[in-house]
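We close this part of the discussion by returning to an individual protein. Part of our work consisted of pairing the sequence of a single chain with a tokenised description of its backbone. No coordinates are needed to read the tokens, only the vocabulary itself. The amino acid sequence and the backbone structure tokens for this protein are reproduced below:
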Amino acid sequence: MKILVIGAGAREHALLKGLSADPVRPELHVAPGNAGMAGLATIHDVPVTDAGGLVTLARSVAADLVVIGPEAPLVAGVADELRAEGFAVFGPSAKAARLEGSKAFAKDVMAAAGVRTARARQLAPGAEAEVDSALDEFGPTWVVKDDGLAGGKGVVVTPDRAVARAHAEEVLAAGNPVLFESFLTGPEVSLFCLVDGETVVPLLPAQDHKRAYDDDKGPNTGGMGAYCPLPWLPSDGVERIVDEVCRPVAAEMVRRGEPYSGLLYAGLAWGPEGPAVVEFNARFGDPETQAVLSLLKTPLAGLLDAVARGTLAEHPALEWEDGAAVTVVLAAEGYPAGPRKGDAISGLPEDTEDAYVLHAGTAAAGSGSGVGSAAPEFVSAGGRVLSVVGKGADLAEARERAYALLEGIELKGSFYRHDIGAAALEGRISL
């Protein structure tokens, strides 16, 4: 079996790691990939939104399955182009990917499906004069979103009206619609569901940590770490999310003639009445994927292939390892505003079954780079540079293994959060 993975981050590295362990031993290719993936897959320098180039690549490697990682190619219709050429593709069509690409579209689908979510108002570019009246409708905590793709960083949640106004004006000035939402209370939950039409199969629930610094301080990021499963979630929590959110949305997409095929990521807040949707994503989330897939025992290649070929309903039930997993992101100095690049990475440890490193913003070091006489193998090339994964019998052990590995890695000016999963471990999350 030959599989082409599209993407270049730690999420795609996690997918490749999972696929490489599949008993079918697939031949793996990745585009554009990163330097840290070279031991798992053949790397091809094709941009993720170059549909023609990706079709040509898939044809040249005779791909049996194409797995699309990031949101941009999905919204751009790369999955459609590949399917039109006869390839089996894991990832939704451009029309279905509007669940992530347009928050207003997602709101419309949820309203039709009877799914609980925040009250919202959208303003289009040119409606700057209406910003204050929109702000008057919400608060005292304002949620202001770029109604489009923003890499997880287009959302401002703030009690400061001036900050909310500034973000709304920034989004409109950039030519994008802006969405004002009511604030949803309760801890956040990320639930990934494999979806094939009306067939919905959940993975383990996880929780992301979006803010840059400890104690949820600093700016929003693409995600600084995650853990799974969630010890504080009710025993019927996953079942409720599937029944009240994911299955109704999948059915509504079928009703509209735009059936969903791929990974539906429900970002939720668990409030007094249970789950309510914060947003949907049309792909695996990063960094939650790194933790969730580390515990999956079911062979990944066959599972993704079943979704791509419309046979998910026939697939055996998923099997999971006992215990917990934690992933912690090592970020470059200046992230998220202006990350430094080109700095040497040293102290990368040997992977073990229970603790390992996944690459995101890295590149192969050039000759002569490095510190002292030993040239580094990798340099930083992005904001989120590495994801470190730890697994254990429980959350405490998983955290211990992840942080022990992380402490030995050196990258000038880099930082990471020290509290990934700590609130859950210490019993500070309650419903």
Q: What stands out?
A: The chain has four domains: 2-90, 118-181, 187-314, 324-425. The chain has a mean pLDDT of 94. The longest helix spans residues 237-255. Residues 265 and 285 are 7 Å apart (CA to CA).
